[in-house]
Design goal:
mainly alpha; five-stranded antiparallel sheet
Length: 527
Amino acid sequence: MDIPQPKPILLENALRALARIIKAAGFYPPGHPALKAQILEGLKAWRPLLTEGNLTFSVRKDHFVVDEARVGKEAAFLPQLATAFFARRVQRVLVLPDFSDRDLLGLARALAIRPELIAQKGGIEELLLQARVMTLWFNELQLDRIVKRKQEAEKVFATDPGKSGDTAAWDEPLLEEATEQAEEKPKELREMEELLRNLQQQGIPDDRYRLLLQELPPKLRRILTDEGRYLVIEALALLLTHAQSERLSVARRQAAHQALDALGMEDVLNYLVDLLCLPLTTRQEQDAIITILLFYGTRVVTRIMDRLCSEKGGQARRCLTELLSRQGAEAIPILNSYLSDERWYVKRNVVFILGEIRHPSAVPALTPLLNHEDVRVGREAIRSLSRIGGPEALDILLQVAEDEDPDLRRLAFLSLGAMKEPAAVPFLLRVVQSQDFLVKKLDEKKEAIRALGEIAAPESWPHLLELLHRRKFWKRARYNELRAAAAAALASFPVPEVIGALEETTEDPAQQVARAAVQSLKQIRKG
């Protein structure tokens, strides 16, 4: 069951989504799929706040307040957004439950209009009313007055449709001022838009296509700005698509590939990495940037690794890690060079990435780190070896499973199970069947039993059944823990002998063993 989040956290998420839409609305043209996706994603963030009815919150000069609690004290985007509301004379906000995607876009666009223009038009509420956005009310919390104003506005719209926006086309520019501001786009951006349109024209000769491509690098480098991000991503993504499209001629594919390769300059790559790490960059933009940077292969690995070493933002670190993990085996020699870094977390990050690449050539570099002085590095090395798999990684994990450190041994057993490698079964059975009259190795044996269940090799279940049927009078409680572990592991073996034994065990006097048998039978019948 999901645990309800406090309202300040929900509102912080919703306002973050609003900030992203404001950004997206400034970059993407009306109706662009990326803008629509951002709006629909943003609406999901607002929905939990409206499940119980109206939402009200207050605006201060540099922060928001809901239920008398400050929203997101640490979030860097909130002061700027609060100032945008406050500058438009909004101090209290009421959101009605039927708040829609169109209304959310309207709010975003209204917050992008200069405050003086809003004042000339009668205020932000009047502008939104003209666009038939009637789920947002500012500085007015009396519902009877709001209902009255809505009725008055609807009468005006009914008698004079020209006074209202086109409600059917929510993806069209909502407000005249927003359109006017969009038309103030710098010359460099307009030139790039025209160039991209020309490059996408059907039927242009290859010679003309190549000439157009020659214009691209200088024009693109002139728009490496916040305003130009949408066009930079679109231009590079277009080149990548053309370079890989079999529908285009070989000459055109080669030209696109060469142009993209030539754009792998330091300023362009740094711009893309910075953009990838910005908090308000959308997931769709991040995916596009990662795909573009992957084109440049090992040329960007050092740059990305250096950024990962210094990056503080969690989302940015995840994107950088994903990008490095998708580089493949060619990046391993460069990544290995960072294993000599003195910082433990740098080593841990590299170890994780090597595990995600899942190539056996990374195993030799991981082995010395198993007994690293910082246990977090050693644990990550074990997990990475289990993801890489293969005979060499298996041999190393089997050695760790006999290490003196009980924590490393336990993690090694978990990793052997995760690898699902049948070659580990003989070792695991030896652990389970080893003499231990006082059951001092209870935890270790339980981990080995669990690993046998995860591997699910057919030769394991007779031994697990034997353990299930073994009753002891000496140290009975501890032996019953082993029997319960065996019953749980047998859920991985849906054969008649196992099912029959589990059915009998549901009547076992030891309740924990009987419960484990019941759960395993449910799991087997569920399939």
